[in-house]
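Example for tutorial group B:
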């Protein structure tokens, strides 16, 4: 057992494949509301990815909110009682205020457990990008990094995690205020597939608008070609929101263009999926074009 535990939240969309052979993180569930009903997404939660996208395809929108400080306490305190320290890697503050809730909880826990170290880091990453960074942190933990060394490493390298998303429909971006109603109407009419990324301050922004999935995937590959730094790692994560056929197309494109890429796969869960909708595809890599 390590002397510190890495925590993250369910938005990280970490698959079993991503953590195979690594220390396991503790994942904190996140709240999602659909059709006026409150759900919990994550370990021991009551919302599956399959049910979430089924409801989205039936025309229902989802809303998300930050994690309650009480939930953080329920997860952090047992670890502290065991005499272990904590490193919490949080979803980007550009998308949620959860880190403020975490800090509120941590300030109280520091008084109760003065001999323990509790560090919260804003990853400035989202979804599989957050999970990508968390998994590399787990790898460093296994290599023997101390808590402080790992916290410094994450802070220094988080800007090298490049996220490039494409979505199939504008409805959920519109509902979440990411695009205007005019842009959504034009986009739907002309089968526009927006290309988005997580920028330097951790916000999800539209970068380009392309016609059709083929062009959208080609744009993702072009971004990877322009910025990928395999000298850091040739590990590349790809994920989808209820779009396995699109994931296969993206995978084939990457392996054809970048045969040295070591691909890992995941599914995009409800927290980011609430904003991107079904049909979302993402590629994550270490690079210089965040």
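The residue assignment follows.
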């Amino acid at each position: 057992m390590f002397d510190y535990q890495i925590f993250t939240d369910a938005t990280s969309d970490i698959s079993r494949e991503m953590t195979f052979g690594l220390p396991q993180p503790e994942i904190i569930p996140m709240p999602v509301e659909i059709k006026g009903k409150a759900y919990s997404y994550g370990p021991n939660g009551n919302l599956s990815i399959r049910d979430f996208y089924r409801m989205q395809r039936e025309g229902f929108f989802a809303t998300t909110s930050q994690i309650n400080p009480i939930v953080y306490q329920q997860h952090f305190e047992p670890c502290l009682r065991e005499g272990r320290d904590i490193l919490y890697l949080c979803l980007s503050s550009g998308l949620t205020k959860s880190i403020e809730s975490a800090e509120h909880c941590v300030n109280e826990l520091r008084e109760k457990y003065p001999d323990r170290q509790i560090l919260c880091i804003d990853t400035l990453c989202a979804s599989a990008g957050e999970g990508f960074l968390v998994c590399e942190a787990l790898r460093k933990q296994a290599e023997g990094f101390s808590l402080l060394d790992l916290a410094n490493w994450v802070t220094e390298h988080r800007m090298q995690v490049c996220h490039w998303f494409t979505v199939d429909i504008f409805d959920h971006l519109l509902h979440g205020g990411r695009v205007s109603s005019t842009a959504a109407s034009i986009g739907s009419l002309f089968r526009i597939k927006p290309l988005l990324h997580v920028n330097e301050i951790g916000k999800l922004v539209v970068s380009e608008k392309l016609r059709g999935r083929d062009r959208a995937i080609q744009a993702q590959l072009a971004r990877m070609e322009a910025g990928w730094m395999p000298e850091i790692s040739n590990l590349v994560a790809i994920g989808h929101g209820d779009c396995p056929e699109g994931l296969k197309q993206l995978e084939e494109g990457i392996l054809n263009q970048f045969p040295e890429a070591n691909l890992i796969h995941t599914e995009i869960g409800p927290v980011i999926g609430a904003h991107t909708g079904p049909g979302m595809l993402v590629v994550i890599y270490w690079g210089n074009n965040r």
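The first strand starts at residue 4 and ends at 9. Compare this with the pattern of hydrophobic and polar residues in the output above.
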